[in-house]
Design a protein that fits this description.
By secondary structure, the protein is an alpha/beta fold. It contains 12 helices and 9 strands.
Length: 321
């Protein structure tokens, strides 16, 4: 089925401004569903969605499950450790066997960059990328943009600095592509050892000191150190990283303007962010989690053929169940 997004959502790099705008605008009417006593609409009743997670995940997997269930889809969760993949079956064989059971969509998280696109090119079901290697995490980028737009009322012209382990971060790449497409100015800040060698080609400003980033930005999106993806030598120590690049209340107090603080989670408190910042008045971290469900509902709805002008009707349909 042809949709305004195409068949799959594998990244934000190649989406147009109009497509990203459509996704964000479609998420808005779905927010209210999560505030209802009965958090459900029949929009995707009869659709079967498989969550195929080859890497550990809590927030993203649970967020997709909530989104699917609130749209009344039937969901199946498959983890690599409990599937035939652990016996040597290939990704494509796994997906084709699932597709033979007449599924409609696959949400995939995989450790290899490009896995979602690879799968989408080989099966007829819609494929949604829930994070692939160090490539992209498009729904996280979208929920970050929705949170920024909620608080700053616009994306065009705002200044967002992505701080921390950009090298290993799929979230950073989705944010860079998406924000720049929507007209925002984007910067990165972190040790040079944790920045991609081609960062200069991505159209971002580079700061070597967190104080510079705080002085420049309207919002900081703080990334955790992905120690599980690192070999030795990227940073001297966690304590030293916090001393030089940690976002502390003391540093924020010297900012020339009120800053928004975002973090995709999970957080390493006391490393890239202090607890009094994560839990403080600058933080919109829990708003990101809430917006994640609405964004994923919008993605599922649009890929299933839902029309943007009917999104509010889909929301209201829950009142007539």
């Amino acid at each position: 089925m042809t949709t305004p997004l195409g068949k799959d959502l594998v990244g934000l790099e190649h989406l147009s401004r109009a497509q990203i705008q459509l996704l964000l605008d479609t998420a808005e009417p779905f927010k209210e569903i999560s505030e209802r006593a009965i958090k459900k609409v029949p929009t995707l009743r009869g659709k079967t969605i498989v969550n195929l997670f080859f890497e550990a995940s809590t927030r993203t997997r649970v967020s997709f499950e909530f989104a699917e269930k609130r749209l009344s889809a039937d969901t199946v969760n498959v983890a690599a450790s409990g599937s035939s993949v652990s016996k040597g079956e290939t990704l494509v064989d796994t997906a084709r066997n699932l597709e033979a059971m007449r599924i409609d969509m696959v949400v995939i998280r995989h450790g290899s960059s490009g896995a979602a696109r690879f799968l989408g090119e080989r099966i007829e079901s819609n494929v949604i990328n829930a994070g692939d290697g160090t490539h992209e995490h498009p729904t996280q980028g979208l929920l970050d943009m929705l949170t920024l737009r909620d608080n700053l009322r616009r994306l065009d012209g705002i200044r967002v600095c992505i701080c921390g382990d950009v090298l290993h971060s799929r979230v950073a790449r989705s944010n860079i592509w998406g924000l720049r497409t929507m007209g925002a100015e984007v910067a990165v800040c972190g040790p040079r050892s944790l920045l991609p060698s081609a960062i200069g080609e991505m159209g971002v400003t580079v700061f070597d000191r967190i104080e510079q980033a705080i002085e420049w930005a309207d919002a900081l999106n703080i990334l955790r150190l992905q120690l599980e993806r690192m070999s030795a030598g990227y940073i001297p120590s966690l304590r030293e990283y916090n001393r030089v690049f940690g976002v502390t209340l003391e540093r924020l107090d010297r900012a020339p303007r009120e800053l928004l603080i975002l973090h995709p989670g999970p957080m390493n408190r006391g490393v890239e962010i202090d607890s009094n910042v994560a839990d403080g008045p600058h933080s919109v971290i829990l708003d990101q989690v809430t917006n994640g469900v609405a964004v994923r509902m919008a993605v599922l709805y649009l890929l299933a053929g839902g029309r943007a002008d009917l999104a509010e009707a889909a929301q209201r349909a829950g009142d007539d169940r």
